[in-house]
């Protein structure tokens, strides 16, 4: 039996504190669809997705109604699409992206991830085809998202890939000026990409995963903010240790909710349950913000000295609480700081307290990286590549996942705002200082070797 107090607390978290299951992501291995005949390949991909995911949305809706807990997004993540392109020509890339888009629409999901490649050590023919196709594929489809892993602690940083991604990001934005460059938000460039991540734009099904698997992304920044406000208001002598303990306890409850939902969805579908990704993924709503948690913790202006220490403490406490609640915690699990998707972070950029340099420092201790950061539309591809290289270096050296999802806003500069809508929110254009000063460095290309700590066997 579940204690009455826990039931009432969960109801409060859902109704007042914005607790939700942010994403149920069904992973599907599509490598068995590979075929030298492009027509057969596309038909097999559609058939595979229809057969496995046809009941996903209805199942999620039933479980959501049963427990009264919102499931915000239903998503698919497939095997890296570049592997299906081996032996084909560029003419197959766009039809494959559209086949994924159409299949996702047919089964009613919000997004499908996996149109991507792992190139941390070099390019296969399929990898090169896919990367070259990204601008057209992502700007001409509605639901398709992409990841490209360009670095790892074991392999180092593929600077040739970094350079190519700088050009791709700028091209994506230029193709969607009427949307403030939104197509670039559908692409995540990674170091040490996790293979069980349910969050977009970087989700895909890794090679070590089951043929099908249900992964859950739970988000609760509003819950943690409310818990800290109660603690500080009703307790004397609260110190940072007590704050960390309260974050751990609250993360434990949130993780329990995620595991309950995830296991029931998986059981109903007859598919293995994978992981709970306990990540504080904010939304643009007031009260559902990681930035607001930092403010409750005493950081009056986000980006001020102490911001990096605060986000490090928050990230660590979230992980500890989640791990105690479940043996199936995975994905990214921690604190996200996607700027345009968090009104407090976005406001901090607009006010000038949160700079690109300080944001980069904060990414060294959080769970992702430079996420949904709006940069000037005039930014050169080499400057984007340099930003990516810096973030990849943080991930490689610290043996952690980092990512870059920057959006050049065509025709806009510092002090102007890009508006994306929905969960993507809106963001002020951040100042990128000394643009062009790194052109020579990134133009060398090649590969930055793996650090010494990669030799751990």
Task: List descriptors.
single chain, 2 domains, alpha/beta, 43% helix, Anaerobic Ribonucleotide-triphosphate Reductase Large Chain, 457 residues, seven-stranded mixed β-sheet, globular, six-stranded mixed β-sheet
How would you describe what is shown here?
The chain is 43% helix and 17% strand. It folds into 2 domains: 26-191, Alpha-Beta Barrel (Anaerobic Ribonucleotide-triphosphate Reductase Large Chain), CATH 3.20.70; 221-448, Anaerobic Ribonucleotide-triphosphate Reductase Large Chain. It has helices at residues 4-15, 38-53, 56-67, 93-107, 125-139, 159-175, 221-234, 240-269, 290-296, 307-325, 343-351, 356-363, 381-398, 439-443; strands at residues 20-28, 71-78, 111-113, 117-118, 146-152, 156-158, 187-191, 212-219, 273-280, 334-335, 370-376, 402-409, 417-419, 426-428, 447-448. The strands form 3 sheets. Strands 4, 5, 6, 7, 11, 12 and 15 form a 7-stranded mixed beta sheet that branches. A 6-stranded mixed beta sheet has the order 3-2-1-8-9-10. A two-stranded antiparallel sheet has the order 13-14. By secondary structure, the protein is α/β, with parallel strands linked by helices. Helix 3 crosses helix 8 (240-269), helix 5 packs parallel to helix 6 (159-175) and helix 6 (159-175) crosses helix 13. The protein is built from 14 helices and 15 strands. The mean pLDDT is 89.
């Amino acid at each position: 039996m579940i204690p009455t107090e826990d039931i009432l607390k969960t109801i409060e978290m859902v109704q007042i504190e914005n607790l939700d299951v942010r994403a149920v992501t069904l992973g599907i291995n599509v490598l068995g669809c590979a075929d030298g005949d492009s027509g057969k390949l596309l038909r097999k991909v559609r058939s595979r997705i229809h057969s496995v995911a046809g009941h996903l949305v209805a199942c999620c809706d039933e479980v959501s109604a049963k427990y009264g807990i919102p499931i915000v997004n239903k998503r698919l993540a497939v095997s890296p699409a570049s592997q299906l392109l081996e032996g084909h020509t560029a003419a197959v890339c766009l039809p494959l992206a559209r086949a994924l888009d159409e299949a996702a629409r047919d089964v009613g999901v919000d997004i499908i991830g996996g149109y991507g490649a792992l190139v941390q050590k070099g390019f296969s023919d399929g990898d090169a085809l896919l990367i070259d196709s990204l601008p057209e594929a992502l700007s001409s489809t509605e639901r398709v998202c992409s990841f490209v892993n360009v670095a790892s602690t074991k392999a180092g940083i593929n600077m040739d890939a970094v350079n190519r991604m700088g050009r791709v990001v700028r091209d994506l934005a230029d193709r969607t000026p009427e949307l403030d460059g939104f197509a670039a938000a559908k692409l995540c460039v990674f170091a040490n990409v996790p293979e069980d991540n349910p969050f977009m734009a970087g989700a895909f099904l890794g090679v070590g995963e089951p043929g099908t698997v249900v992964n859950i992304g739970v988000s609760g920044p509003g819950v943690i903010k409310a818990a800290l406000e109660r603690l500080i208001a009703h307790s004397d002598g609260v110190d940072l240790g007590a704050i960390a303990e309260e974050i751990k306890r609250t993360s434990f409850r949130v993780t329990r909710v995620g595991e309950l939902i995830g296991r029931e969805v998986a059981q109903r579908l007859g598919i293995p349950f994978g992981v709970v990704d306990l990540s504080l993924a904010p939304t643009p709503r007031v009260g559902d913000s990681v930035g607001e948690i930092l403010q409750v913790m005493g950081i009056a202006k986000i980006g001020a000295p102490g911001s990096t220490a605060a986000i490090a403490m928050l990230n660590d406490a979230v992980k500890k609480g989640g791990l105690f609640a479940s043996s199936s915690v995975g994905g990214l699990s921690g604190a996200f700081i996607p700027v345009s998707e968090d009104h407090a972070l976005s406001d901090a950029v607009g006010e000038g307290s949160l700079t690109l340099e300080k944001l980069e420092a904060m990414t060294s201790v959080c769970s992702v990286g430079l996420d949904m950061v709006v940069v000037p539309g005039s930014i050169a591809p080499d400057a984007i590549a340099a930003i990516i290289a810096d973030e990849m270096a943080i991930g490689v050296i610290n043996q952690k996942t980092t990512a870059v999802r920057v959006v050049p806003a065509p025709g806009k500069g510092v002090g102007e705002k890009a508006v994306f809508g929905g969960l993507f929110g809106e963001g002020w254009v951040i100042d990128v200082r000394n643009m062009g000063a790194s052109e020579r460095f990134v133009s060398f290309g090649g590969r930055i070797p793996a650090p010494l700590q990669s030799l751990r066997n």
